[in-house]
């Protein structure tokens, strides 16, 4: 089909060579890039043009968020999708060479985890044989199919994810997902399809066009989800902006032992140390890391098993900082030993990290002095400090457990198991620690009121942990000795049971959890304060140049 009438709000993300054959309307407008494509897709386009390996994608821009579905439906299926199929050499729903895509949100302003994503769209009973022939990997195909049913069921059909988790737990009998053979995953997929029918009152859609259309509709609608509205209200983000939707060719972190998914920061977002800060899961997809429902590990295993990928990741992280002139939060997938970049954005960081990163980027020549000053001029010097435990000699606070430190500082308060309890006790003047099974962004409103967050599962790069750092809340995730006892309104650390309402202390610097309230001390960073004061002295006169 001719692309002479390329829609105004529809764009392709691909390498320079692929884009040369398309009309200019298919290229994002430089002057309005992030506003029309959303921050995520605009940055992807910049990364692709800079030569980073980005899977090709189709973007339905933010103007479609305020238009009837018939407008974007025509742009998607009549023009955009055929061109994406041409670039990838695959077709959505094709029985021989099926195209599988992810459907992702992306507002002009970064809103980590506040909107929805659906992965593996395009799998159905008819396309499974084609994927089996293409990949020769039945485990990958059945794992991806069951993930699609669960993800689509949650995001589009509104099914409680616990339904699918219960089916997985029943079949796995304590085994890790990665150890399940393809026949077990095939059985699990069929059970998921039954769960979908039972919960939704209709079969899972076997039309891949219906899958794609309804996924896009749900992602656009997630702009108005309660957690997204709450986040925008407290961050001062204009609700009229809307979100774009990115439809991107899937790459598979669940392909084999040389595959996986990760999230990273180009520098440590807790204190600004200039080193990559990466969480990674082998044989996983991206939502496993960012959703907060699984615990991830640091980069050590990735560097040991795939050193060439780790080296490429480090080089790419440095390029991202030069490209965007700031510390970046990025997502990536490794498929059979090949690295693909899926996202980059300015990373959320603590106030202390913000100061150090700005000064370091200035010293490295990435930004100029005025930019560094503008990024730090509103920071209070007393905020450039670390809060630590202050136990006297001979004191030994009772340590209940430990997890992964995700946001630094010390926080103490009453243990609370849900948002309602947090709101009620805070209204009565109490300080509260929210304790949850998973580090999920659905808890963002409660987290805003609480002093800190403790979870049994999750990664330090999961969306909830990212938001906690942005809010300055102490956060410890992945406390594996923690067991929630909701019927008893209590939790258990090993053998010790702690009832809701009892006090605990979180050490977000070391990842420890203590019984009761523990004394703290504030340790100023005198050297960092001095550097900020010296920078401010350069701009003491209004309008003075660097």
Automatic annotation (TrEMBL):
Q: Does the keyword Lipid metabolism apply?
A: no
Q: Which SUPFAM superfamilies match?
A: Glutathione synthetase ATP-binding domain-like, Phosphohistidine domain
Q: Does the keyword ATP-binding feature in the UniProt annotation? A: no
Keywords in alphabetical order, please: Pyruvate
Pyruvate phosphate dikinase AMP/ATP-binding domain location is: 90-295
Pfam families cross-referenced by the UniProt entry: PEP-utilizers, PPDK_N
Where in the numbering of this chain does the PEP-utilising enzyme mobile domain appear?
431-511
Protein name per its UniProtKB record = Pyruvate, phosphate dikinase
What is the source species?
Answer: Tepidiphilus baoligensis
